[in-house]
Specification:
This protein has nine helices and seven strands. By secondary structure, it is α/β, with parallel strands linked by helices. It has a single domain, classed as Rossmann fold. Helix 4 links the parallel strand 4 and strand 5.
Length: 244
C-alpha cells in the first residue's frame, strides 16, 4: 500500500513508532527514523532491513532546525517525503501539587511543539508535491484527562486541535492531516506500571485486554495510505472501547 513512498517517523526506534516503521516497510515504504537514542535507532534500522529501506537520524523534535534536517534527510536519501508520523513523546507524570514547571514544559514541548514542528515542516515539502499524509499520535488521555497527567493530557488534547486546524489550512494543497488516540497499549512503559494500576485500567476496557503496538500501526497505515484518501482532520481511537 505504500510502494515507492517515503515516511518519516519520530520516536521511531522503539514501541509504537518502531511498530509503525515495521508495518510501513512491509507495505513497501522507505522510512527515516528520528530519535534521540542513537544505539536504539541504528538497531531499528538493522532490524528493518538496513540502509536500503531505512535511515537513522538523531533528532530533538523541540528544535525546528533538527526537524527540518530530519524531513530533508527523507528527500535527500530516498527522493521524497510522502508520509510524516509525529510520534515522539515522553512522560513526566505527577499530580499538579508535585509537578514542577519544568516537567510541564518538557512534556508540552516534546508532544505539542514537536508535533507542530513536524506537521508544518513536512507540509512545506508536501505542498510542493500537492500530496502527502501526516499522522499525529495523540492519546485517549487527551480526550478524558488522567490523574497525574495534567501536562500529558493537555499536550495530547492540543495535538487534536493542531491536527484539525492544520488539516483545514492545507487540505486544498492535497495534504491530509489526521490523528490517532491510542489507549492502553502494551509496551515497556505501560508494563512497568504497578500491577494494581494496570488491573484498574484493564477493567475499563470493554474488549478486556491491552492493545498491541501493531494494532496502532495498522491504523497509522490506513491513515498514511490511499485507503483514507477522503479523510482529513479526523481522530481515530484505538482503545478497545475504553472511554467511549
Amino acid at each position: 500500500m505504500l510502494d515507492g513512498r517515503t515516511a518519516v517517523i519520530t520516536g521511531g526506534a522503539q514501541g509504537i513508532g518502531f511498530a509503525i516503521a515495521e508495518r510501513f516497510v512491509a507495505e513497501g515504504a522507505r522510512v527515516v527514523l528520528g530519535d534521540l537514542n542513537p544505539a536504539a535507532t541504528d538497531a531499528a534500522v538493522t532490524a528493518l532491513g538496513g540502509s536500503a529501506v531505512a535511515k537513522a537520524v538523531s533528532c530533538d523534535v523541540t528544535d525546528a532546525g533538527q526537524v527540518q534536517a530530519l524531513v530533508g534527510a527523507a528527500v535527500d536519501t530516498f527522493g521524497s517525503l510522502d508520509v510524516m508520523v509525529n510520534n515522539a513523546g515522553i512522560t513526566r507524570d505527577a499530580t499538579m501539587r508535585k509537578m514542577t514547571e519544568e516537567q510541564f514544559d518538557q512534556v508540552v514541548s516534546v508532544h505539542l511543539k514537536g508535533s507542530w514542528n513536524g506537521t508544518r515542516l513536512a507540509a512545506n515539502i508536501m505542498r510542493e508535491a500537492k500530496s502527502g499524509a501526516i499522522v499525529n499520535i495523540s492519546s485517549i488521555s487527551g480526550k478524558v484527562g488522567l490523574i497525574g497527567q495534567t501536562n500529558y493530557s493537555a499536550a495530547k488534547a492540543g495535538i487534536v486541535g493542531l491536527t484539525k486546524a492544520a488539516a483545514k489550512e492545507i487540505a486544498h494543497l492535497g495534504v491530509r492531516v489526521n490523528a490517532i488516540q491510542p489507549g492502553l497499549i502494551r509496551s515497556a512503559m505501560t508494563e512497568a506500571m504497578p500491577q494494581r494500576i494496570w488491573d484498574q485500567k484493564l477493567a475499563e476496557i470493554p474488549m478486556a485486554r491491552a492493545g498491541e503496538p501493531s494494532e496502532v500501526a495498522s491504523v497509522a497505515l490506513f491513515l498514511a495510505s490511499d485507503l483514507s484518501s477522503y479523510m482529513t482532520g479526523t481522530v481515530l481511537e484505538v482503545t478497545g472501547g475504553r472511554h467511549i
